[in-house]
Amino acid sequence: MPDELWELFQRVVPSAPTRPQGGGRRRVDDRVILAAIIYVATTGCAWRQLPPVFGASWQTVNRRFAEWSQARVWARLYRIMPDELGARGELDWSRCAIDSVSVRAVKGGI
To answer: What are the residue boundaries of the Insertion element IS402-like domain, all occurrences included (predicted)?
Structure first.
């Protein structure tokens, strides 16, 4: 994942919730989760098929995706990308298109 994308993402993602002392596992780094989400989105694989190379379970990646979706992170990122990257000539719109074949629609709507 390009550093420029990571810097933009950090500006729109909500801060991680703080947990009370004790118990649980250490939170997987947001950059690792974002890379895994991009992998799923670009390859079209199912969450359960996420390769273990990312170091996060598919459940963790899916849960964080849902949390960020509810927090409207993707909409905010989409809004600032053209301004930030387009002004520098770094935004290649040909790579930003999503083919309808690779995105599954929910039967019956949401």
So the answer is: 1-77
CA distance 62 to 76: 19
Percentages helix, strand, coil for the chain, rounded to the nearest 5?
A: 60, 0, 40
Contact 16, 30 (CB under 8 A): yes
Full-model pTM:
0.71
Instruction: Report how far apart, in Å, the C-alpha atoms of 58 and of each of 4, 53, 55, 66, 101 are.
Output: 25, 11, 10, 12, 22
Q: State both tokens at 92.
A: 């290649």
Element (H, E) at 55: none
> In the chain, what is the straight-line distance between the N-terminal and C-terminal CA atoms, in Å?
30
Question: Is-contact 74 13, C-beta < 8 A?
Answer: no
Using one digit for the tens of pLDDT, what is the confidence trace for 55-109? 999 999 999 999 999 999 999 988 888 777 665 555 555 554 444 444 555 566 5
16 Ramachandran zone, left/alpha/beta (phi>0; psi -120 to 50): beta
